[in-house]
Specification:
Number of domains: 2
Radius of gyration: 19 Å
CATH superfamily of the largest domain: NAD(P)-binding Rossmann-like Domain
CATH topology of the largest domain: Rossmann fold
Number of strands: 12
Strand order of the largest sheet: 3-2-1-4-5-6-10
Largest sheet: 7 strands, parallel
Length: 339
C-alpha cells in the first residue's frame, strides 16, 4: 500500500488546471478524494470527467466558512489550490480577489484549527510573491513583494498559512511553483493557452508584450509531483516553503516559437509590444532546497513539455470552447485583448 492509499484528501480547486491533474493522480494512488468546486465554475467537471465518479464533489465557495468547517473535518490531507488566479480579473475585481484568496484561505485555516488540527495542509502559493527579483535565480530567502492584487493576495495567504503553523501549530507546507504548462489550462491570458487557441485556428500566435520577458516554465506533471511530495515528506516539509522550477529562463518569444513549430511553418508570432499591468520582467527560480530536502527535480525538458501540451490540446479540440466559456465568464473579449 502506498502513501495515498485510503487517505482522506480534500482538494480545493480540484477541477482547475493543476487541480484536475492532481485529482487524477491522488485518486489513481488510492486516495478518497473530496473536491471543492466553485458553483459557477465555467470549467465545471469537464476537466475531471475520467475520475468524477470516484470522488465526492462539493459545489461551494471558499468564502463559506461553515461549509469549509464541514468539508475539512475528518480529512487527513488538505491540498489548497482554489483561488482567483486571473491577473487581469484581479486588477478589475480586487475586493473579490482578497475575499477569495485571503479570506477563503483563512476559512480553511480556521476550519482546521477548530475541527481538524491533525490534518496536513499543502498550500499552493506562487513565484509571483517575490515580485521583481533582487537577484536571480530566486531562492526561498528572497524578499517578498507584490505588483498586482493577485500577487498581493497570494502573498498575504502564503504568510497567513505560515502564521497558523507558528501560532497554533497547524501542520502545513507551502509550494511556490514557477509558470506551469500543460493541458487543461483555460486561462487565455497565459502564454500557451493563448498560443494554442490561435494556432488551432491556423492563426499566428499573439504576444501582448514585447516578448522579451523571461520566465521559468515547469510541466504540470512535475508540479503535481512537487505538491504530493510536500504531503508525503511532511516530516521534512512541515512549516517550510519550497520553490519548484527548472531554473532555466525562457523568453515568451522563444516559447511562442516552440509552440508554433509544433503546428508547422509560416506561423511566426505577432508581437504587440503592449505594457501589461502587473507584468514582471524577469523571473526564474532555484529549487536546490527541494532537491536537497525532498529529492525533487524537474523531469520534463521544456521541448517535451511543450510537445505534450500541444498534443493534449489537439486530442481535446473541445477545450477551445472551454477557453471561450471561461474567458466570457471573466469578462474577456479574446479578439479585443489580442487585437
Amino acid at each position: 500500500m502506498g502513501f495515498w492509499s485510503d487517505k482522506r484528501v480534500l482538494i480545493t480547486g480540484g477541477n482547475g488546471f493543476i487541480g484536475s491533474w492532481l485529482t487524477e493522480k491522488v485518486i489513481g494512488q488510492g486516495a478518497k478524494a473530496t473536491l471543492l468546486i466553485r458553483k459557477e465554475s465555467p470549467v465545471g467537471i469537464s476537466s475531471i470527467e475520467a475520475v468524477a465518479g470516484k470522488a465526492k464533489l462539493v459545489h461551494g465557495d471558499l468564502r463559506d466558512a461553515q461549509l469549509m468547517e464541514k468539508i475539512c473535518e475528518g480529512q487527513d490531507i488538505i491540498l489548497h489550490l482554489a483561488a482567483v488566479t486571473q491577473v487581469l480579473y484581479s486588477i478589475k475585481n480586487p475586493q473579490e480577489t482578497v475575499e477569495v484568496d485571503i479570506n477563503g484561505t483563512l476559512n480553511i485555516l480556521e476550519a482546521m484549527r477548530k475541527k481538524n488540527d491533525d490534518a496536513f495542509l499543502v498550500f499552493t502559493s506562487t513565484d509571483k510573491v517575490y515580485g521583481e527579483p533582487k537577484y536571480l535565480p530566486i531562492d526561498e530567502e528572497h524578499p517578498l513583494s507584490a505588483k498586482s492584487p493577485y500577487d498581493a493576495s497570494k502573498l498575504a495567504a502564503d504568510r497567513l498559512v505560515y502564521s497558523y503553523y507558528v501560532t497554533y501549530g497547524l501542520k502545513e507546507s507551502t509550494s511556490r511553483c514557477s509558470n506551469i504548462i500543460g493541458g487543461r489550462d483555460s486561462n487565455i491570458l497565459r502564454a500557451i493557452p493563448s498560443f494554442v487557441y490561435f494556432l488551432m485556428q491556423k492563426r499566428r500566435p499573439v504576444i501582448r508584450t514585447g516578448g522579451k520577458n523571461l520566465r521559468d516554465y515547469l510541466y504540470v506533471d512535475d508540479a503535481v509531483r512537487a505538491i504530493m511530495l510536500l504531503a508525503e515528506k511532511s516530516d521534512k516539509s512541515k512549516g517550510r516553503v519550497f520553490n519548484f522550477g527548472t531554473g532555466k529562463p525562457t523568453s515568451v518569444l522563444e516559447l511562442a516559437k516552440k509552440v508554433a513549430a509544433e503546428f508547422g511553418p509560416g506561423l511566426e508570432p505577432i508581437i504587440q509590444g503592449k505594457v501589461v499591468p502587473g507584468e514582471i520582467d524577469k523571473q526564474y527560480l532555484t529549487s536546490k532546497l527541494a532537491e536537497k530536502e525532498l529529492g525533487w527535480k524537474p523531469a520534463m525538458p521544456l521541448e517535451d513539455g511543450v510537445r505534450r501540451t500541444v498534443e493534449w490540446y489537439r486530442k481535446n479540440p473541445q477545450w477551445t470552447d472551454v477557453i471561450r466559456r471561461s474567458s466570457s465568464y471573466y469578462g474577456y473579449d479574446i479578439e479585443a485583448i489580442y487585437k
